[in-house]
Amino acid sequence: MKDLRVGMMGYGFMGRAHSNAYKRLTDFFPVQHKPILKAVCGRNADKARQFASNWGYERVETDWRKLVDAPDIDLIDIGTPNDTHHEIALAAARNGKMVCCEKPLAMNVREAEEMARAVEDAGVPNMVWFNYRRVPSIALAKQVIDEGRIGRPFHYRATYLQDWTIAADVPQGGAGLWRLDVDVAGSGVTGDLLAHSIDTAMWLNGPITRLVAKTETFVKERIHAVTGKVQPVGIDDACMFLAEFENGSMGTFESTRYARGRKNYNTFELNGADGSVFFDLEEPEYLQFFEYKQQQSGKKVEGHLTGWRKIHVTNSEHPYMNRYWVPGTCIGYEHTFLNALADFVMGIEAGKPAQPDFREALKTQRVCDAVLESARTNQWIRTGL
Ligand code: SOE
Q1: Ligand 1 contacts CB of residue 102 (under 6 A)
Q2: 108 and 140 co-located in one domain
Q3: Is there a single domain that holds both residue 111 and residue 165?
């Protein structure tokens, strides 16, 4: 076993999700690297100390530069707000550290390009935590599509809906709520939620080449938690776009934080000539599959039994599931990060980088930037992919 000494940037939601993955990796996966939780870095020393003691980090830093310079760190994990990703990733790569970065990779394409170049120039392993690729049902959808069971694709339909910012008195800025502050987040639902949908869509259905988008900001001003002043809201609260895929299929994408009752409603459906797949994160252990059957060697299709199959993705034949429990028992949100980390580490060991690496995640960034540009200019935009 080799030590994999982790320096964690950030102690929020993603700091916890990633730390959990490091702690459980060798319990569930036969890897040759054992993560060691060396240090966590955060601006608030008390919170960082509390986090370190809860999760078992050996020490605390409050200056991220100290952590990227530390000789006892192999991997820098960036779980901090979006406006910090670029600077930390560049410095970490320059120091020869592996870099795992939370999504979205960057504030914009320019930053993301520099980040992809930096890790490649340094030759360091890197990954972006698009964790939903590692939901077993979504990985099964990928398998079903790659097996050619959907046939010629016609339609891709994605939604990502939440409802937590409807109240006008939710502040922007500060812990968790930095997602509402455009200077820190870069964008609203486009970078935060649609980036997930876009990554999944392009993984399953190939590049998005052209799109047209419409965004809306329903609450125009919010108090800023840091300045205490009422300030204009610069993020997109909702975004819809139409897309063309390179393979000739059409896509629709919808995302909002104003869908009352929807907490983390991440769905997609792909319809092809020979079949369809449908996934809904509110029922994450299921993949729905429709197979179109034509008459085969004189045997009549049993039309009265034709229908969607709701596959309970918990068998040991299903992606990742042989690492966990017995058929019929489920895994959770946290395991998507564990599965991603396992792929990353096994990728290093096999010399086959796990995806999405920074170069791959740059493609999603290109689509996000194109979405925002289209919404700004009311034009169809080519993504360059
Ligand atoms: C936003 O509410 C959020 O936490 C995103 O930032 C995550 O990426 C998403 O998976 C869940 O929702």
Answers
A1: no
A2: no
A3: no
Are 165 and 313 contained in the same domain?
yes
Whether the CB of 50 sits within 6 Å of ligand 1: no
Verify that 80 and 147 share a domain, yes or no.
no
28: pLDDT strictly greater than 80: yes
* Closest atom of ligand 1 to CA, residue 162: 2
Is the peptide bond preceding residue 171 cis, with omega within 30 degrees of 0? no
Domain that holds residue 153: 133-381
Q: How far is the CA of 192 from the centre of ligand 1 (A)?
A: 6
Measured from the CA of 13, which atom of ligand 1 is nearest? 4
Where in 79-219 does DSSP place strands (E)? 98-101, 126-128, 153-161, 208-216
- Summarised one tens digit per residue, pLDDT across range 272-321 is 999 999 999 999 999 999 999 877 777 888 888 889 999 999 999 999 99
Ligand 1 pocket member 192 (CB < 6 A): yes
Q: Which of 88, 112, 129 is the last residue of a domain?
A: 129
Q: Are residues 228 and 109 in the same domain?
A: no
pLDDT at 293: 81
